[in-house]
Amino acid sequence: MMSNGWIDLNGQVAVVTGAASGIGRAACVALATAGAKVVALDLDLQGAQAVATAVNGAAHGLDVTNAAEWHVVAEWIQTEFGRLDILVNSAGIALKDTVGDVDLSNHHKTFAINVEGTLLGMQVALRFMRPQGKGAIINLSSTASLKGNPNMASYGASKAAVAHFTRSAALENVRAGHDIRINSVHPGLIETAMAGEFYGILEKIGSPDALRTMMTTGRPGRPEEVADLILYLASDRASFISGASIVIDRAASA
Q1: pLDDT recorded at residue 207
Q2: Is the dihedral of CA 8, 43, 164, 247 positive or negative?
Q3: Distance CA 248, CA 14 (A)
Q4: In whole angstroms, what is the distance from residue 47 CA to residue 22 CA?
Q5: Residues noted as catalytic
Q6: Per the count of CB atoms within 10 A, which of 66, 131, 187, 218 is most buried?
Q7: Cα(198)–Cα(230) distance, rounded to whole angstroms?
Q8: Which residues are within 8 A (CB) of 82 and not within 5 positions of it... i.e. 6 or more apart?
């Protein structure tokens, strides 16, 4: 696909996890529009293939919690493309739990996907980027990491861990002399399938319209709006931004 001019990613390979839907899918479209060759990764291989077809990219199935599968994907990327320039860690889940009665199986699943999946993705990407001397990693956190949430305690804690790993990785690579920028994006309520599940969790509070009003300053965000921020952070336009935690919620948590 053609670059939009202001951001030019031609010649770069961009890998997106959780690519089959929501913010991941929107990120694939934005990156491809700027000229990147997009690799869509998702446990839902059929969904990832549909996205890849739409953006003239490639797709591969992946359970982000499985280190062996990451290894297979890394070998495939090396064989097919020979490089990895951009990683967007978008795969994630949100399950209902509270500190007082947390189901450890749900807690472990949340951390396995949201935290360990992100960590494994960064490790694979860095193996490509360090020899290349350059790269950009964008990790999806959440505004849930910034304040307590009695209905989704593990989710908020996992997204706080993502932000901390992001800052640690950014410092690690800057101090090692690598031009690898690593940032986290913290969306508020965005109209995705996950948001639909969130409405279900809190449906006793009121109608979906009431929830949207409660959780936002006027409206929820669109996946494409988050994707625009991801695109910027992936590009050289953000060459001096690393280790940042960037909130995108239209002042809802201001």
Answers
A1: 59
A2: positive
A3: 22
A4: 11
A5: 155
A6: 187
A7: 23
A8: none
Share of the chain above pLDDT 90, in %: 77
Position 108 in a domain:
yes
Average predicted confidence (pLDDT) for the chain: 91
Tokens of 201: 């969790």
Could you list the residue range(s) of the whole structural domain that residue 48 is in?
13-247
Does the pTM exceed 0.85? yes
- Calpha distance 223→27 (Å, rounded): 8
Query: Do the domain assignments include residue 5?
Result: no
Q: What is the pLDDT of residue 111?
A: 97
Residue 1 located in a structural domain = no
Say if 6 falls within a structural domain.
no
CATH number at residue 219: 3.40.50.720
Number of domains in the chain: 1
Number of Cα atoms under 13 Å in the Cβ half of residue 24: 27
How far apart are the C-alpha atoms of 152 and 94, rounded to whole Å? 7
> What are 5-42's pLDDT values in tens digits?
789 999 999 999 999 999 999 999 999 999 999 999 99
Burial of 25 (0-12, 13-18, 19+ CB in 10 A): buried
Cα separation of 220 and 194, whole Å? 13
3-state secondary structure of 86: strand
Contact by Cβ (8 Å): 56, 1: yes
